[in-house]
Amino acid sequence: MSNQENNTISSDQHGGCLDLCIDSTVSWPNGHELKVFFMNPSEYSQELITIVKLAAKTWETYANIKIIFVNDQESSDIRISLQSTQGDGVRGWSVLGRHCESRRYDEPTMSVSVGRLAHRKAIRSVALHEWGHSLGIIHEHSSPACQIVWDRDVVISHCGGNLHKANTNYFFRAEENKTRYSPFDPESIMIYNIKQIFMKNYIETRRGEDLSDTDKQWAGIFYPFPGTIQ
Ligand SMILES: [Zn+2]
Protein backbone atom coordinates (compact mmCIF):
# COMPACT_ATOMS: atom_id res chain seq x y z
CA MET A 1 0.00 0.00 0.00
CA SER A 2 2.95 2.22 -0.37
CA ASN A 3 1.86 3.19 -3.85
CA GLN A 4 0.46 6.61 -4.37
CA GLU A 5 -3.29 6.41 -4.07
CA ASN A 6 -5.83 8.80 -5.31
CA ASN A 7 -7.74 9.34 -2.14
CA THR A 8 -10.01 12.15 -3.16
CA ILE A 9 -13.31 11.17 -1.65
CA SER A 10 -15.16 13.85 -3.53
CA SER A 11 -14.50 11.88 -6.68
CA ASP A 12 -14.64 8.19 -7.27
CA GLN A 13 -11.29 6.73 -6.56
CA HIS A 14 -10.93 5.95 -2.99
CA GLY A 15 -12.35 4.52 -0.23
CA GLY A 16 -15.21 -2.50 2.29
CA CYS A 17 -19.33 -4.22 2.60
CA LEU A 18 -19.38 -4.70 6.52
CA ASP A 19 -15.72 -5.68 6.40
CA LEU A 20 -12.46 -4.63 7.82
CA CYS A 21 -9.33 -6.67 7.10
CA ILE A 22 -5.90 -6.68 8.73
CA ASP A 23 -2.72 -8.26 7.42
CA SER A 24 -1.76 -10.36 10.47
CA THR A 25 1.81 -10.65 9.27
CA VAL A 26 2.48 -6.92 9.69
CA SER A 27 0.18 -5.88 12.52
CA TRP A 28 1.79 -4.23 15.55
CA PRO A 29 1.88 -5.95 18.94
CA ASN A 30 -1.34 -5.29 20.81
CA GLY A 31 -1.00 -2.22 23.03
CA HIS A 32 2.09 -1.09 21.12
CA GLU A 33 3.24 2.49 21.49
CA LEU A 34 3.70 4.00 18.04
CA LYS A 35 6.10 6.91 17.92
CA VAL A 36 5.13 9.37 15.20
CA PHE A 37 7.28 12.11 13.75
CA PHE A 38 6.19 14.91 11.42
CA MET A 39 8.86 15.69 8.85
CA ASN A 40 9.48 19.44 8.45
CA PRO A 41 6.29 20.46 10.30
CA SER A 42 7.01 24.18 10.05
CA GLU A 43 6.23 23.99 6.35
CA TYR A 44 2.61 23.07 6.97
CA SER A 45 -0.32 24.75 8.52
CA GLN A 46 -1.03 23.86 12.10
CA GLU A 47 -4.61 23.04 11.11
CA LEU A 48 -3.46 20.31 8.72
CA ILE A 49 -1.22 18.76 11.35
CA THR A 50 -4.08 18.89 13.84
CA ILE A 51 -6.43 17.06 11.41
CA VAL A 52 -3.85 14.30 10.87
CA LYS A 53 -3.21 14.01 14.61
CA LEU A 54 -6.92 13.86 15.43
CA ALA A 55 -7.39 11.13 12.82
CA ALA A 56 -4.76 9.08 14.64
CA LYS A 57 -6.51 9.68 17.95
CA THR A 58 -9.79 8.48 16.41
CA TRP A 59 -8.24 5.06 15.67
CA GLU A 60 -6.71 5.08 19.15
CA THR A 61 -10.21 5.40 20.62
CA TYR A 62 -11.23 2.04 19.12
CA ALA A 63 -7.92 0.12 18.86
CA ASN A 64 -5.57 -0.74 21.72
CA ILE A 65 -2.65 1.16 20.21
CA LYS A 66 -0.96 4.18 21.77
CA ILE A 67 0.01 6.89 19.33
CA ILE A 68 2.47 9.47 20.57
CA PHE A 69 4.01 12.33 18.67
CA VAL A 70 7.75 12.70 19.15
CA ASN A 71 10.51 15.11 18.17
CA ASP A 72 13.14 12.40 17.74
CA GLN A 73 13.10 11.23 14.13
CA GLU A 74 15.63 8.44 14.59
CA SER A 75 13.53 6.56 17.13
CA SER A 76 10.22 7.07 15.34
CA ASP A 77 8.07 4.22 13.97
CA ILE A 78 6.01 6.37 11.61
CA ARG A 79 7.18 9.46 9.74
CA ILE A 80 4.65 11.67 8.04
CA SER A 81 5.37 13.87 5.07
CA LEU A 82 2.75 16.51 4.28
CA GLN A 83 2.67 18.33 0.97
CA SER A 84 0.74 21.28 -0.25
CA THR A 85 -0.56 21.17 -3.83
CA GLN A 86 -2.81 23.15 -6.12
CA GLY A 87 -6.53 22.52 -6.48
CA ASP A 88 -8.87 20.76 -4.09
CA GLY A 89 -7.57 17.18 -4.23
CA VAL A 90 -6.27 15.12 -1.35
CA ARG A 91 -3.94 12.21 -1.98
CA GLY A 92 -2.08 9.88 0.31
CA TRP A 93 -0.17 6.70 0.77
CA SER A 94 1.16 4.77 3.72
CA VAL A 95 3.46 1.87 4.32
CA LEU A 96 1.49 -1.10 5.69
CA GLY A 97 1.88 -1.79 9.43
CA ARG A 98 5.25 -3.10 10.58
CA HIS A 99 6.74 -2.76 7.13
CA CYS A 100 7.47 0.73 8.49
CA GLU A 101 10.28 -0.87 10.49
CA SER A 102 12.22 -1.64 7.33
CA ARG A 103 12.20 1.99 6.16
CA ARG A 104 15.18 4.20 6.87
CA TYR A 105 14.60 6.73 9.60
CA ASP A 106 15.04 9.61 7.16
CA GLU A 107 12.29 8.27 4.85
CA PRO A 108 8.58 8.98 5.27
CA THR A 109 6.25 6.05 5.94
CA MET A 110 3.12 8.10 5.25
CA SER A 111 2.35 10.93 2.89
CA VAL A 112 -0.63 13.23 2.66
CA SER A 113 -0.79 15.76 -0.18
CA VAL A 114 -3.41 18.41 0.27
CA GLY A 115 -4.70 20.93 -2.24
CA ARG A 116 -4.92 24.50 -1.10
CA LEU A 117 -8.68 24.40 -1.68
CA ALA A 118 -9.24 20.96 -0.14
CA HIS A 119 -12.17 20.53 2.21
CA ARG A 120 -11.37 19.69 5.82
CA LYS A 121 -13.61 16.58 5.73
CA ALA A 122 -11.77 15.22 2.68
CA ILE A 123 -8.43 15.64 4.42
CA ARG A 124 -9.74 13.86 7.51
CA SER A 125 -11.07 10.95 5.41
CA VAL A 126 -7.72 10.45 3.70
CA ALA A 127 -5.83 10.78 6.98
CA LEU A 128 -8.07 8.16 8.62
CA HIS A 129 -7.54 5.84 5.65
CA GLU A 130 -3.76 6.17 5.70
CA TRP A 131 -3.65 5.68 9.47
CA GLY A 132 -5.58 2.45 8.89
CA HIS A 133 -2.78 1.26 6.60
CA SER A 134 -0.21 2.27 9.21
CA LEU A 135 -1.99 -0.06 11.65
CA GLY A 136 -1.69 -2.89 9.11
CA ILE A 137 -5.23 -2.67 7.73
CA ILE A 138 -5.55 -3.31 4.01
CA HIS A 139 -8.12 -2.07 1.53
CA GLU A 140 -11.59 -3.38 2.13
CA HIS A 141 -11.83 -4.33 -1.54
CA SER A 142 -8.68 -6.46 -1.03
CA SER A 143 -10.30 -8.47 1.76
CA PRO A 144 -10.94 -12.19 1.21
CA ALA A 145 -14.57 -11.33 2.00
CA CYS A 146 -14.87 -8.92 -0.93
CA GLN A 147 -17.12 -10.23 -3.72
CA ILE A 148 -16.36 -7.60 -6.35
CA VAL A 149 -15.71 -9.00 -9.82
CA TRP A 150 -13.54 -6.46 -11.60
CA ASP A 151 -13.89 -5.38 -15.17
CA ARG A 152 -10.16 -5.59 -15.57
CA ASP A 153 -9.88 -3.74 -18.87
CA VAL A 154 -11.78 -0.73 -17.52
CA VAL A 155 -9.73 -0.58 -14.33
CA ILE A 156 -6.43 -0.95 -16.13
CA SER A 157 -7.43 1.81 -18.52
CA HIS A 158 -8.36 4.01 -15.53
CA CYS A 159 -4.87 3.35 -14.17
CA GLY A 160 -3.34 4.66 -17.39
CA GLY A 161 -2.43 1.17 -18.57
CA ASN A 162 -0.30 0.65 -15.47
CA LEU A 163 -0.99 -2.99 -14.58
CA HIS A 164 1.09 -2.81 -11.41
CA LYS A 165 -0.99 0.09 -10.15
CA ALA A 166 -4.23 -1.68 -11.08
CA ASN A 167 -3.09 -4.83 -9.31
CA THR A 168 -1.98 -2.99 -6.19
CA ASN A 169 -4.90 -0.60 -5.82
CA TYR A 170 -7.76 -2.76 -7.13
CA PHE A 171 -7.21 -6.42 -8.09
CA PHE A 172 -5.11 -7.60 -5.15
CA ARG A 173 -7.03 -10.03 -2.93
CA ALA A 174 -5.44 -11.01 0.38
CA GLU A 175 -5.04 -14.61 1.43
CA GLU A 176 -7.39 -15.88 4.14
CA ASN A 177 -4.59 -17.48 6.15
CA LYS A 178 -2.65 -14.22 6.41
CA THR A 179 -5.52 -11.98 7.44
CA ARG A 180 -8.24 -11.47 9.98
CA TYR A 181 -11.35 -9.95 8.51
CA SER A 182 -14.94 -9.08 9.13
CA PRO A 183 -17.79 -9.61 6.70
CA PHE A 184 -17.44 -7.19 3.71
CA ASP A 185 -18.16 -3.51 4.61
CA PRO A 186 -18.96 -1.16 1.69
CA GLU A 187 -18.88 1.81 4.07
CA SER A 188 -15.40 1.18 5.50
CA ILE A 189 -12.94 4.05 5.60
CA MET A 190 -10.57 1.52 3.99
CA ILE A 191 -12.48 1.13 0.73
CA TYR A 192 -12.45 3.28 -2.37
CA ASN A 193 -15.60 4.79 -3.71
CA ILE A 194 -15.54 2.54 -6.74
CA LYS A 195 -17.15 3.41 -10.06
CA GLN A 196 -19.91 1.10 -11.24
CA ILE A 197 -18.15 0.60 -14.57
CA PHE A 198 -15.15 -0.91 -12.72
CA MET A 199 -17.26 -3.92 -11.70
CA LYS A 200 -19.02 -6.70 -13.54
CA ASN A 201 -21.27 -7.22 -10.50
CA TYR A 202 -22.14 -3.83 -9.11
CA ILE A 203 -21.68 -3.47 -5.37
CA GLU A 204 -22.20 0.09 -4.19
CA THR A 205 -19.40 1.45 -2.05
CA ARG A 206 -20.07 4.40 0.22
CA ARG A 207 -16.90 5.43 1.96
CA GLY A 208 -17.66 8.32 4.23
CA GLU A 209 -15.83 10.92 6.20
CA ASP A 210 -15.39 8.86 9.35
CA LEU A 211 -14.81 5.29 10.49
CA SER A 212 -17.82 3.06 9.80
CA ASP A 213 -19.47 1.20 12.68
CA THR A 214 -17.72 -1.97 11.48
CA ASP A 215 -14.37 -0.17 11.34
CA LYS A 216 -14.81 0.86 14.96
CA GLN A 217 -15.88 -2.61 16.09
CA TRP A 218 -13.15 -4.52 14.25
CA ALA A 219 -10.38 -2.11 15.21
CA GLY A 220 -11.08 -3.33 18.75
CA ILE A 221 -11.02 -6.96 17.62
CA PHE A 222 -7.67 -6.57 15.85
CA TYR A 223 -6.25 -4.58 18.76
CA PRO A 224 -8.37 -5.53 21.79
CA PHE A 225 -8.37 -3.54 24.98
CA PRO A 226 -7.63 -5.46 28.20
CA GLY A 227 -10.71 -7.17 29.54
CA THR A 228 -12.46 -7.13 26.18
CA ILE A 229 -14.25 -10.38 25.40
CA GLN A 230 -13.51 -11.38 21.80
ZN1 LIG B 1 -5.30 2.95 0.66
Automatic annotation (TrEMBL):
This is Uncharacterized protein.
